[in-house]
Amino acid sequence: GQNIDQPTEMTATEGAIVQINCTYQTSGFNGLFWYQQHAGEAPTFLSYNVLDGLEEKGRFSSFLSRSKGYSYLLLKELQMKDSASYLCAVKDSNYQLIWGAGTKLIIKP
Amino acid sequence: NAGVTQTPKFQVLKTGQSMTLQCAQDMNHEYMSWYRQDPGMGLRLIHYSVGAGITDQGEVPNGYNVSRSTTEDFPLRLLSAAPSQTSVYFCASSSLDGISGANVLTFGAGSRLTVL
Questions:
Q1: Which site among A91, A94, A97 would you substitute to test the B interface, given the most B Cβ atoms closer than 10 Å to its Cβ?
Q2: Which residues are CB-neighbours of A83 under 8 A, at least 6 positions away?
Q3: What is the pLDDT of chain A when averaged over all its residues?
Q4: Measured in whole angstroms, how far is the alpha carbon of residue B115 from the centre of its chain?
């Protein structure tokens, strides 16, 4: 079967750096997405990786290793507003998105 | 731009009742979809559409119907509500510029449904 694994919850301190991991086993691979979802709100797009390596967007970076079935989202200079769930999703061979359950990130002052 | 508009935001139903969740987008997106989100689980695809007149089933289609008569609208119908359909429902749309590309989903605000 197809599977996306992410930690359920992580805690970090304001101003610090946190890395959220995502491992996947899917039938085919056509890209990996990270979405941010604040409590009670809709998911919003953060990043997309289809080739191995690091994609940087301001305070957020996303890394992909296709051979290892592994990605991470790196958040730098954490702010209280970064408290949210982070969803990893992989587009499979049928171009359908398979979603992880999400990682709830708690930021403490 | 309004983006993706979902109504209602909250709904309480009794078992056996039917209802329709409305979804409209103003971005001229070809692709529209319905997901449900339950605690501890990833988003699960219910139904999707790649254009007017075309719909297909996702991972969890049972108990739900959809239609796509226009590019803008994609309503989700619950035929006979069951407590297992208590969930948060999201409508999402995207363009289909190169289906293998980074077609980013734009989500509606969500509809929280409780079936008693």
A1: A97
A2: A38, A105, A106, A107
A3: 96
A4: 17
Q: Report how far residue A13's alpha carbon sits from residue A89's, in angstroms, rounded to the nearest whole number.
A: 26
Instruction: Answer yes or no: are the C-beta atoms of B27 and B104 closer than 8 Å.
Output: no
CB A74, CB A64: distance < 8 Å = no
Amino acid (1-letter code) at residue B20: T
**Cβ of residue A87 closer than 8 Å to a chain B Cβ:** yes
Per-residue model confidence (pLDDT) at position A1: 76
Distance from CA of B67 to the nearest CA of A (A): 19
pLDDT band at A22 (very low <50, low <70, confident <90, very high): very high
Angle at Cα B94 formed by Cα B93 and Cα B97, nearest 5°?
160
A43 pLDDT above the threshold of 80: yes
